[in-house]
Amino acid sequence: MISFQDVSFRYPRSKWLFKQLNLEIKQNLITFIAGPNGGGKTTLGKLMAGILKPEVGTVLVNGLNTKDVELAEIGAKVGYLFQEPERQIFAATVRDEIGFVLELHEIKQAEITAKVDAVLKQFQLEHLANLSPLKLSRGEKQRLAIAAIMVNQPRFFILDEPTTGLDQERKEILSSVIERLQDEGIGMVIISHDQYFMQRHAQQIITVVGGEIVDVANCST
Ligand SMILES: Nc1ncnc2c1ncn2[C@@H]1O[C@H](COP(=O)(O)OP(=O)(O)OP(=O)(O)O)[C@@H](O)[C@H]1O
Ligand SMILES: [Mg+2]
Fold it and tell me: Is the Cβ atom of 14 under 6 angstroms away from ligand 1?
């Protein structure tokens, strides 16, 4: 599904972070990316989602070279949850945040309303529908960000540190969302430091330290 072929990447005015990286991510396994702060996890996730492009080498998403396609085209296939959910929330209300993507397409208003209602329910956001997203707690914002991405019906989902700031109950809700997505056949890469969360969901763990993949472990769950 996602393939890195001799990928090298560096940020402007920085040293190489990744050098000739090769990696395959399979659609049918939940892959975790682990490793210390600054190791390159977020950068790796952004390269997978086509948000960043490699300077050298190729990243293929479902056979498409991320260098050749528009971000929106990749975005329709790969959903990306930022490490800071605030970064992807901008509408006036929770309802509009979820409906936004649908408004861009030529979909009838009644159909949009029905779909938004279903997603609000699915992600337990109904009671917050008319609030400004800015008034939401971190956990609620994160649930909203995931809900807004899922409206796009991506086939693959990258989540960057999704449990940060969530209490036990919210983590449980997130876990059931992840299990549901997995049942629906949606591939996932989850960047996380959370050992409990990782043990619960990981089928493959890639450890990145200083821009190098130091370990790829398969886990039987
Ligand atoms: N926009 C940027 N410009 C320059 N350097 C950056 C930029 N973003 C990240 N870096 C650097 O790239 C390296 C990898 O950062 P990255 O955010 O990918 O790490 P991470 O593993 O996600 O860390 P964390 O666990 O703290 O989230 C770090 O040294 C970081 O300082
Ligand atoms: Mg990070």
Answer: yes
Judgement on whether residues 145 and 163 belong to the same structural domain of the protein: no
Query: Which of 42, 161, 191, 192 maximizes ligand 1 atoms within 8 Å of its Cβ, making it the mutation to test the pocket?
Result: 42
Q: What is the pLDDT of residues 147-197, one digit of tens each?
A: 999 888 899 999 999 998 788 988 998 898 899 899 999 999 999 989 999
Q: Which of 187, 194, 195, 201 is nearest to 156 (CA)?
A: 187
**Which protein residue's CA is at the shortest distance from atom 1 of ligand 1?**
11
Distances (CA, A) of 9 to 33, 190, 211: 18, 21, 9
Tell me the chain's radius of gyration from C-alpha atoms. Answer: 17
1 and 53, same domain (yes or no): yes
Is there a contact between 122 and 147 (Cβ–Cβ < 8 Å)?
A: yes
Tokens linked to 24: 């395959």
Range of the domain at 213: 1-77+154-221
Instruction: Give the C-alpha separation, 95 to 83, whole Å.
Output: 22
Among residues 107, 126, 153, which one ends one of the domains? 153
